[in-house]
């Protein structure tokens, strides 16, 4: 697809009520493939002369803050340009770890959460968001859309919740996704229960919102589609294209999948996408190997909690809820997503459907303590796994964004 990025952005920004106003541009961090330098320059060119201010907020969720050097590379800005081309533009990391960051915009009552979640959860949710979202006249969300393990497809209002939100929305939305399971929700088209919750939270934010939703080609990382409008409208259009570009269908499951995780994932918290995106095509009793020698931590942010709970299937937590409910639900959700679907009962114990093995810089002892398999990455040559599909072996050379599905599994191409 040949996309005229400049023309689409300038046209979309021309309809934006931004003259003389303060605009906050909300973008993802470095864990998403997107030509952000190109997008940022076109957005700035379209708005800088019109607005009173154009600042940038990086939607970290609970990821680690980006350094100044990382931000420069992320936005494609040479340092001296901050005093010339981009003079006056300020860039902020979302401070998820600072309570003073947040302001409440309302409470979604338990009865409404029960309706939104199809009866899976019934808890009130205090919707807190980075207070910067209320200090500007317009929020401009810009980011890519991919199949996603919690919400179905990423993007749109997800850059607000969990992108710049408080912990309560993060925990409830992610645990709802875990109850549904990544296996069941990832790449599901349309508005899922988690998407309904996120959109409901976003509706409480009074600042006008606009969105540039991008679909990135898996072949070359270039833009395959770009859509502007409200977060809901732009996301829906982008998700439809993402379903065509980011889901690869296969005819039969594989006994082994080698997921080679790229450097943009710096811990297992993010690298676990190498499991989420291939789980649907792993045969019962099969194995996913996450190959990432550069990764040495389970989570820089949530490592202590993961060390306490380990990795387990959903029912391990659900059937022992009194024991685990005080842990952050978002971390419990991550744990279940990496483990995949499975069963648990006190008599027979835990029975995951598949095995998950880490070939990373994390030691065998730590893997055992976290309840995941271990393999020495030095014993693996990923190239030797190529071309073995007929043997029931799949190599995924850049794992984490392309979703693999069985052709006959009920989700249509």
UniProtKB/TrEMBL annotation:
The lineage of its organism: Bacteria, Bacillati, Chloroflexota, Chloroflexia, Chloroflexales. This is LarA-like N-terminal domain-containing protein. One of its GO terms (molecular function) is lactate racemase activity. InterPro entries: LarA-like (IPR048068), LarA-like_C (IPR043166), LarA-like_N (IPR018657). It comes from the Bacteria. Residues 13-176 form the LarA-like N-terminal domain. Gene3D superfamilies: 3.40.50.11440, 3.90.226.30. It comes from Roseiflexus castenholzii (strain DSM 13941 / HLO8).
């Amino acid at each position: 697809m040949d996309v005229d990025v400049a023309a689409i952005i300038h046209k979309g920004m021309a309809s934006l009520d931004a003259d003389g106003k303060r605009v906050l541009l909300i973008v993802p961090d470095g864990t998403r493939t997107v030509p952000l330098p190109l997008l940022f320059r076109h957005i700035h060119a379209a708005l800088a002369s019109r607005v009173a201010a154009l600042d940038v907020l990086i939607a970290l969720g609970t990821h680690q803050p980006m350094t100044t050097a990382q931000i420069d590379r992320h936005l494609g800005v040479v340092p001296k340009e901050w005093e010339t081309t981009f003079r006056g533009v300020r860039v902020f990391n979302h401070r998820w770890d600072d309570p003073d960051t947040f302001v409440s915009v309302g409470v979604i009552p338990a009865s409404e959460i029960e309706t939104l979640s199809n009866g899976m959860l019934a808890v009130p949710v205090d919707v807190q968001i980075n207070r910067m979202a209320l200090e500007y006249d317009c929020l401009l969300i810009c980011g890519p859309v991919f199949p996603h393990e919690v919400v179905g497809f990423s993007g749109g209002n997800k850059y607000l919740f969990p992108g710049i939100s408080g912990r309560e929305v993060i925990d409830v939305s992610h645990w709802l996704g875990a109850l549904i399971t990544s296996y069941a929700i990832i790449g599901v088209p349309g508005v899922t229960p988690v998407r309904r919750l996120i959109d409901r939270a976003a509706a409480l934010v009074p600042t006008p919102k606009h969105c540039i939703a991008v679909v990135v080609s898996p072949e070359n990382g270039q833009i395959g589609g770009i859509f502007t409008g409200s977060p809901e409208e732009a996301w829906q259009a982008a998700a439809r294209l993402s379903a065509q570009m980011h889901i690869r269908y296969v005819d039969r499951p594989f006994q082994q999948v080698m997921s080679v995780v790229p450097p943009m994932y710096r811990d297992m918290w993010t690298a676990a996408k190498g499991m989420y995106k291939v789980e649907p095509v792993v045969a019962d009793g099969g194995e996913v190997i996450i190959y990432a020698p550069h990764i040495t931590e389970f989570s820089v942010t949530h490592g202590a909690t993961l060390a306490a709970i380990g990795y387990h299937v959903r029912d391990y937590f659900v059937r022992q809820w009194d024991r685990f409910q005080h842990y952050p639900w978002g971390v419990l959700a991550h744990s279940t997503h990496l483990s995949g679907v499975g069963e648990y009962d006190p008599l027979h114990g835990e029975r995951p459907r598949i095995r998950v093995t880490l070939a990373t810089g994390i030691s065998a002892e730590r893997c055992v303590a976290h309840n995941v398999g271990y393999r020495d990455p030095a014993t693996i040559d990923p190239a030797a796994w190529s071309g073995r599909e007929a043997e029931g072996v799949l190599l995924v050379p850049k794992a984490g964004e392309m979703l693999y599905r069985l052709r006959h599994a009920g989700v249509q191409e």
